[in-house]
Design goal:
8 helices, single chain, seven-stranded mixed β-sheet, about 30% helix, five-stranded mixed β-sheet, about 290 residues, alpha+beta, Jelly Rolls, globular
Length: about 290
């Protein structure tokens, strides 16, 4: 993989952000965007345990899903407070994603400010919390709704690998899915280039997020995340301005995903074999063009 360090700024004005990153679909980290929020100082493990610890949540392990399994299926369920206490005590390869904590504790929405000066189209009913224990992994994927994301890290450090959507075939995207066939866990010293040679030419970015860092991920960007420390983050989602972008997200959610789920149930072996051939054929084509 051909990786470049991601641009980071202590401060980036909305005008410069729009001109140099938003309009160019280029990711960037803004360090001070969240530091004026009450959440920057208030949000910690005990704060969440106290206000929503009794809620049951789905947790996900580090096992990479196979091509027979519908995406976003939880591996277990437990009380949010019990999970956070586990995370506090030491390495736990379990994570929570797309948890709308604000439905259960709407008062904490006042702990942050929507950054409307930076972009429009925020889906304000769905700010989402992502939590991971030390060592937990979010495997390589792109967000199915094709939204722009502002992802702010609270507590701990997290390593992030990013690629433009156009690199999808070098990353071995599985057809009809948002996931990669390849496993990028500990990619920095353990990636299988013999099995996935096209990934050598994938051009992307690498960054470590720390407390208060806000990562802008343009719509469709591939990302792989590894929790260096236990921590949590909040994602604010914004729809694309263009009708084409909105329609792509709608198709992924209501067309592509449902067709894939149906085929996995009705003809799993045939569907898996077909997609596997397509993955490698697409990777071979992009490799031949280089």
């Amino acid at each position: 993989m051909q990786l470049t360090a991601l641009d980071k700024f202590d401060h980036l004005s909305p005008e410069d952000f729009k001109k140099n990153y938003y309009q160019k679909n280029k990711p960037v980290v803004i360090r001070d965007l969240a530091r004026q929020w009450p959440a920057y100082h208030k949000w910690n493990w005990d704060y969440f345990i106290n206000i929503v610890g009794d809620r049951e949540v789905g947790v996900y392990n580090n096992v990479k899903s196979d091509s027979y399994t519908p995406i976003n299926t939880a591996d277990a369920y437990m009380k949010f407070g019990k999970y956070l206490n586990m995370v506090k005590k030491g390495p736990v390869e379990l994570r929570i994603f797309l948890f709308n904590i604000f439905q259960h504790a709407p008062q904490i929405v006042t702990d942050f400010t929507w950054p409307d000066a930076y972009m429009k189209g925020f889906v304000k009913k769905f700010p989402m919390l992502f939590v991971g224990g030390e060592g937990s992994i979010t495997h390589m994927h792109f967000d199915i709704d094709m939204s722009h994301i502002l992802h702010t890290q609270f507590i701990g450090k997290k390593r992030v690998l990013l690629f433009p959507f156009e690199e999808q075939h070098k990353l071995y995207r599985k057809p009809w899915e948002v996931l990669s066939l390849a496993n990028y866990a500990r990619y920095y010293d353990n990636f299988d280039y013999e099995k996935f040679p096209a990934a050598k030419n994938a051009q992307g970015y690498e960054v470590v997020l720390e407390h208060g860092d806000t990562l802008f991920m343009p719509a469709g960007y591939w990302h792989h995340m590894e929790y260096i420390d236990a921590g949590f983050a909040m994602s604010l989602r914004a729809l694309q301005n263009s009708l084409t972008g909105k329609l792509k997200g709608a198709w992924n959610l209501f067309g592509m995903r449902n067709i894939d789920t149906l085929m996995k149930k009705t003809a799993p072996k045939w569907w898996y074999d077909r997609k596997l051939k397509q993955v490698y054929a697409a990777a071979d084509r992009v490799s031949a063009d280089i």
